[in-house]
Structures
1.
Amino acid sequence: MRFTVVLLFAWAMPFLPAKAPAVEPGFTSLFNGTDLTGWKISGSQQSFSVSDGAIVASGPASHAYYDGPFRNHRFRHFELRIDIMARAAANGGVYVLTEFEEVGGNERASGRFPSKGFEVQVYNGTAGPRTGSLYHVVDLNESIVNDETWFTESIIVKGDTIVVKINERQIVNWTQPADWNGGQEGPGRRITGPGTIALQAHDAKSAVLYKNIRIRPLD
């Protein structure tokens, strides 16, 4: 009888969702570790899922934009930290200073990618800008992290400067020139007003995992 009671008690216990991990002092988590609450997807809804506390981006090109309540999802001066892992040969990225677009306006990818803001690349392959690149603004040719390995990407935006760090190693420090016109990516690649954060699902053959997404305002 005692054994039966214990089983019934265990069965009756409510399911408790996983808690978002603790973050560093001054930072606020933008992802609860359980579902996509606070995120709005442009493009294929099936390209984003949540598994083991991480957002998994894998599927047709689309983007998950932070659309939650913190700072009304508008950030201008901040430090963003994200733990990332790219599966073998995967491509992805993190956008900052962007805004939700039902269909991206960037002609380079047939309208599938955001036309505003800057992308910090996630790609450890052998051709094209590597992980940590400020895409087509400061492109890196060296892979400093490996596929199938978690790393922490920090993106700091202050004034007209963007700094990118991988595992605390600074790899980009770019200040927007007064006459900057957006470069190869077009006029939307300018630091102007505030924007939100977006995670990229690049293609169906890529899988990139994003977790511990946290931000610290600097204003």
2.
Amino acid sequence: MRSVRGLLDTGHTKIIEGDLAGYFDSLPHAELLKSVARRVSDRHTLHLIKMWLVAPVEEDDGRGGKRRTTPGKDSGRGVPQGSPLSPLLGNLYMRRFVLGWKRRGAESRLQAKIVSYADDYVICCKGDVDEALAEMHWMMRRLKLTVNEAKTRVCHLPKDRFDFLGYSFGRYYSPQTGRAYLCAWPSKKSVQRLIGAIREATERRVLWMEADEMVQTINRKLLGWANYFSLGPTGKAYRVIDRYTPRRLCRWLCKKHQVHNSGASRFSYDYLYDTLGLVELTTLRA
């Protein structure tokens, strides 16, 4: 995130938001194993990885039985997801794109730099963004990957804005001075995902939990989210979450203790924050 922000500050304001269709399901085995073999010389390890790539997948057939399929073996593509090896191999193959971009001279010729995390990436350009987009398409075809045209777009800052890894990038106005500048802040989708997680954690099905245990569960979610979303102006996002969380916790406590009013007097903010120890995000950066 800091890399993207640094590039925006140096004038790389033409952004290609890249998206790959079914990235992990389309990784070609032969090319992927070549990348692995450049780093791993032990033949037993290489054989084990190859066996894992073509291992059968067992799924529920919808009728109470099991169905075994072999998509990796049949197509020679894809990595089974759900293990630590999948993101490792995904990052390794994406490195082909990043290194190829530099070796073909696209980075220097077009003043276009790639910032990537797993299969998520943006290309920050100073030069001809249309040429950079064409270069990206050509390289993805060579890598046997498919660009998701519906989700890949070009945006020009500060007129436009874009989202990357949970942050929104664009023009922001300082509430103190009114000055406009380019920066990153937590995206609306990221805020809504956290609110959804808190809502799910405080459903009726967990009324058996003790209040302090519930608060610990919520606090872990809040602190984990805030540790990541700590760059740029976070005040607005933090306030939205701080308004929602105590109301949701109060509602859960009312259901747990069968209180038939709002519970504002019995479960006041002082009780939630001081007695139970609920985390207030807006105080973390004070």
